[in-house]
Amino acid sequence: MPVIKVNNATVHIQELNKGAKETVLLIHGMFSNLSVYYFNIAPILAQNFHVVMYDMKSHGMSAKSKDGYDLNTMTDDLLALMEALELKSVYLAGYSYGGLVALKMAMRYPGRVKKLAVIEAPDPSDNETLGIIDIYSKEFLVDYINNFTDTTKMRMGKRQLDKNHRMYEYLFNETSIKSDMHNERAFFKDATISNISHDTLLLYGKDSNCIDSGKKLYDTIIRSKLVFVKGDHNVPIQQPEEIANRLKDFFEGWHIKFKQINSRLWQGLRS
Amino acid sequence: MDTVTKRKLNSEEIFAALKVFITEVIGEEFVEDMDITRESSFTKDLEMDSIEIVSFSEKVKAHFGENIDFTGWLSGMDLDQLINLKLDDIIKHIETCQ
């Protein structure tokens, strides 16, 4: 299992196509892990990019942490990870809460982000997740899994249910995640969001309850493009190929395509 | 088990190696109660979640080498295929690529 030490904590990372010149860095959402990208999305991006995925603190196979789930600390963690991997600037994509981390990264460290992709980032002020945190119990988890994760076709057995329950119990009862997320409620009202000058792709599910958040970001970020994909909040799991290709096309842009055409022309002339 | 195997392994040897990886990933205490067969599916029978399958994939790559392109092979599958993936599918894939 590839792990690196970042700020004295163990971070699980996965990299594909290490030799590529440009890097795409992928941030997963809260209560998820890097596997949301690993199987389908990352391999498609790795056709042309060095791809880096990492597990956030207390998620997946990264070390647990009692605090630091606010967007400032999360972006400091990300910056430290980039330093550790010697990445000067990256094409950055984040899903759900990871989308908020990606936005904050572009706001705080604009020079470290080449282009920005935000998938299904919720407005924390009307996010149902915050409600879930408040009413969490094991019975709630069972009900939630049975009723709301059906669109991802994943079913959980007892071991998985217990494993998930342990993760939620730890995060909600032993860490600052609740208060940290609550403290981000006003994030969409932060005037510096409108300072984001990066080319920004906003990807949302047509049936998602986060559509309004996408529209708000579209109205706020000058160089943004809003694209709707078939699906709901779980679009990266429902439509991984489309999400990957949308990201790939956006990150490649004309710059890389032009280089590829040049390279093919050059090879043609040489043969 | 993290060294790349050079010798061509037969089906039984691959199956034995995969069982070791599964035990390492989900823990001996859970494997004791399981009957791991070639027909076992990852999500339904072995109850592995996606991050455990990532961990398992890394072990397969480290042991059998990059030639089998395990991640690339998985990436060609849709969600239904991944959910229904059986140990035997992986054994056959590794046999073909060796």
Automatic annotation (TrEMBL), chain A:
Keyword annotations from UniProtKB, A to Z: Hydrolase
Alphabetized Pfam families for the sequence: Abhydrolase_1
InterPro entries recorded: AB_hydrolase_1, AB_hydrolase_fold, AB_hydrolase_sf
Keyword Hydrolase: yes
Cited SUPFAM superfamilies: alpha/beta-Hydrolases
Name of the protein in question: Alpha/beta fold hydrolase
GO molecular function terms listed in the Swiss-Prot or TrEMBL record: hydrolase activity
From TrEMBL, chain B:
InterPro entries: ACP-like_sf
Protein name per the record: Acyl carrier protein
